[in-house]
């Protein structure tokens, strides 16, 4: 299956991607995760991307499109993928169309995860991320484990710079201005399935599961 996840930052795309992987073995490709890894390893790409990310701005389209092009060449994505955080602009979506038609494959579905802005601010300002295993937690709703108790190594919990409140508001504004137009773009291609992202993890996953079971 070839899927795209669209939704505001903090809608739960990363967490639901893990659940989708557990059941369907569809590999998530998160542009945010790849960029953060490059920043951590201080690669050329990481240096270019760092200031955009920490200010909550989008990394320029040409950089992202080249990055995705290289990633999609990896044989592990030959039988499918779940794009999380890409595309985020119309030019990126148009570039993806070209990439996929060159690979002679089609998208199966665009999952639109809907969560109101007020809830996003609550979720993201309390979000904490683990540098080691990439999982996310919430200081109130899903507290991180003690570092040594993490079942995936020693957890190294931090707050992403772009999860600070002022930056969250900027990211939401960018989502509404630049990413939300993708909803019409993919609705016109008859690909969009809406998911109410405000329930429990299981409730949200059930909606996704019933969509994927029909594909
Ligand atoms: P995310 O983890 O998906 O919220 O992404 C974190 C940050 O990485 C974003 O706020 C952007 O600065 C950058 N980023 C991730 N994906 C993209 C993309 N498709 N286009 C531009 N910037 C991106």
Q: How would you describe what is shown here?
A:
With 215 residues, this protein is an alpha/beta fold. The protein has one domain: Rossmann fold, CATH 3.40.50. It is 47% helix and 15% strand. It has nine helices and eight strands. The protein has a five-stranded parallel β-sheet, with helices on both faces. A three-stranded antiparallel β-sheet has the order 6-5-7. Helix 6 packs across helix 7. The N and C termini lie close together (8 Å). The model has no long low-confidence stretch (mean pLDDT 94). Bound molecules: adenosine monophosphate. The site of adenosine monophosphate has 17 residues, from helix 2 and helix 3. Adenosine monophosphate binds next to helix 2 and helix 3.
TL;DR of this structure?
By secondary structure, the protein is of the alpha/beta class. It has one domain (2-26, 79-212): Rossmann fold. Helices cover 47% and strands 15% of the residues.
Strand-helix topology:
Layout: E1 2-6, H1 13-24, E2 28-30, H2 31-40, H3 44-54, H4 61-72, E3 81-84, H5 90-102, E4 109-114, H6 117-125, E5 127-130, E6 136-138, E7 157-158, H7 165-179, H8 181-187, E8 192-196, H9 201-213
Parallel strand pairs: 1-3, 1-4, 2-3, 4-8
Antiparallel strand pairs: 5-6, 5-7
CATH topology heading: Rossmann fold
Figure out the total of helices.
9
Bound chemical compounds: adenosine monophosphate
Structural class comes to alpha/beta
Report Rg. Answer: 17 Å
Instruction: Find the count of extended strands (DSSP E, 2+ residues).
Output: 8
Order of helices and strands: EHEHHHEHEHEEEHHEH
Percent of residues in beta strands?
A: 5-15%
The residue ranges in which pLDDT falls below 50 over 5 or more consecutive positions are none
General form: globular
Q: What is the CATH homology-level superfamily?
A: P-loop containing nucleotide triphosphate hydrolases
CATH class: Alpha Beta
The profile of the biggest β sheet is: 5 strands, parallel
Helix content: 40-55%
How many structural domains can be distinguished in the coordinates? 1
In what order do the strands lie side by side in the largest sheet?
Answer: 2-3-1-4-8
């Amino acid at each position: 299956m070839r899927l795209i996840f669209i939704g505001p930052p903090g809608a739960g795309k990363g967490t639901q991607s893990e659940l989708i992987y557990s059941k369907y073995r569809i590999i998530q490709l998160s542009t945010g995760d790849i960029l953060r890894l490059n920043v951590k390893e201080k690669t050329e790409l990481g240096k270019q991307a760092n200031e955009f990310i920490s200010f909550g701005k989008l990394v320029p389209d040409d950089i992202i499109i080249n990055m995705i092009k290289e990633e999609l060449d990896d044989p592990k994505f030959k039988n499918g993928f779940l794009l999380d955080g890409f595309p985020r602009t119309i030019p990126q979506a148009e570039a993806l169309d070209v990439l996929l038609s060159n690979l002679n494959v089609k998208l199966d579905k665009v999952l639109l995860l809907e969560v109101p802005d007020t809830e996003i601010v609550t979720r993201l300002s309390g979000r904490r991320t683990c540098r080691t295993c990439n999982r996310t937690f919430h200081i109130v709703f899903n507290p991180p484990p003690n570092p040594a108790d993490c079942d995936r190594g020693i957890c190294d919990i931090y707050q992403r710079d772009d999860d600070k409140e002022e930056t969250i508001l900027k990211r939401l504004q960018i989502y509404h201005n630049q990413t939300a137009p993708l909803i019409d773009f993919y609705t016109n291609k008859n690909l969009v399935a809406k998911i109410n992202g405000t329930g429990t993890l299981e409730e949200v996953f059930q909606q996704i599961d019933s969509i994927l079971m029909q594909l």
